[in-house]
Specification:
Largest sheet: 6 strands, antiparallel
Radius of gyration: 12 Å
CATH class: Alpha Beta
Number of strands: 6
Low-confidence stretches: none
CATH topology: TATA-Binding Protein
Distance between the termini: 5 Å
Oligomer: single chain
Number of helices: 2
Helix content: 25-40%
CATH superfamily: Alpha-D-phosphohexomutase, C-terminal domain
Length: 100
């Protein structure tokens, strides 16, 4: 499992756009969260790979689950490219990742 943070100004907006975009291909979901908390998007890419993205004041918190390190690196790139596409006014964003 990897945890990441994409520093950005409009995390909830970008998560909603990703849910809509990937929703054509995957069974994505979105939860607006409680008052004052950020929204959360879930992205089940396969039986073995998924991501959960949560809006935070400092950006998008990402929890990525993959079967191995090679797939983790690949999926990090996929996620970063897609977030940067929707955050084009701020892109390229700064990403921080750590393995858990």
């Amino acid at each position: 499992m990897a945890r990441g943070l994409a520093h950005c100004a409009k995390p909830e907006r970008y998560i909603q756009q990703l849910v809509s975009h990937w929703g054509h291909k995957y069974a994505t979901s979105y939860d607006e969260g409680a008052e004052g908390s950020g929204g959360m998007g879930a992205f089940p890419f396969s039986d073995l790979e998924n991501a959960v993205m949560t809006a935070r004041p400092e950006g998008i918190a990402i929890t990525l689950t993959t079967p191995d390190g090679t797939r983790s690196q690949h999926m990090r790139g996929v996620i970063e490219r897609h977030i940067d596409r929707f955050a084009f006014r701020e892109a390229p964003l700064t990403y921080e990742w750590s393995e858990q």
